[in-house]
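Hi U.,

Before I forget, here's the chain from the pilot set. I'm dumping it here mostly so it's searchable later in email.
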Amino acid sequence: MINKRDINCKILICKLSIIVCLFITFQESNANAVPTSNSIEIENTSLVLKSNSFNADRKSFFQLGDKYERLKRGLTVVHFMSNKTYEFRTFDTYDNQDETKQLVTILSNMVKDKAIFAILAHDSASSGKIFESEQFAALGFTALSKLQNRQAYLMNSINGSINESVDDLTIEKQFDFKIEISDKKIYFPKIKYDFEPNVNRYIAHAGGEVNGIKSTNTKEALDQNYAKGFRMFELDIIETSDGHLVAAHDWNMWSRFTDFGGTLPPTHAEFIKEKIYGDYTLLDFEGINKWFSEHPDATLVTDKVNDPIAFANTFIDKDRLVMELFSVMAVEEAAQNGIHTMISHKPFFSLGKNKIDFLEINNIKHVALSRRAIESNTKLLLQLKKNGIKVYVYHVSFDDGKDEAYVQENEIGLVYGMYADKWVFDNVVPKSSK
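Structure:
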């Protein structure tokens, strides 16, 4: 007769033997493993590469995780330093042979270093083939060497070899970017521009953010952002139906903020009795003058209004007023009447080759530009800086990852300052200058 207790003992011994064998196997496999000192913890990150030809009428771009980069004309090289970090540079290969030669050198080094990288084209070849086609072919970029005028082109070395695609309209590749990379080599070192910290480098956009809400143009926005450190405040100035100047971004946004159900634009009486989200106080001209009279170290920067003399004569202190103006005629009119002027993006670029001469003749010390214009106008920005012209950029936070902190870290010094929704400059501006 079989003893049940003996059976249980045999089962237990068998289980213990299996555990010991597994432990010995695990130890042996670890003893034979080669340590990888450069390995990093890998997480899945989505990567999108999209090259549009000129005829697609859309910018090429790449996106790694939540970081998105719109690309300008030429060939853009993206060097992946990990599965979450990268550096990139665009070479204007369309009409610049010197830049194309620089690109050949960079790609030669990357191929030799076995770097993980990608290339995206956007309107990169002028008439006929791309410059230096023989050199690209010698490096293994066969399709690139044959690239024709305005074609889309993508290349990546994610699997360790050169993979190329060409199309007459558009190419898009998506990857689950789980790849072991730890590459500390810098191919595109950032240029750092010297600047002295100054509170007047930062303009509170539409009064600045108030409790997480942007573009309110309200008294509470001015109060909160003055307390945080801003001393320059942009307000959008528009007209009510009966001709009163008030602070609001536009009437459609204002009506959404206030739940106003009447006809747009409202009358002054209708405007002033409303509140944004039921909490925030609207500003008419009397309210604007009152606030700036109570804050004598604050400067008003206007937006949308283009009648400099009428506005400046009504504002409480013309010396604490900078007016962004939107036509060459308005800029000249302001200059003739001693009004501090900031020429806006479109009239500035309409000046052609005589930009700096025009600014000097009219004593214009401020320019407002989209930050999207920075990359393609570096030389011009350096000339403006040399001539004492203060360039403020807007469109901050319009592109993913290009927020106030990014502009501060990468672009202040090349440009003078920025329109900012948030105050993030406590570690930059000395307390004595607030």
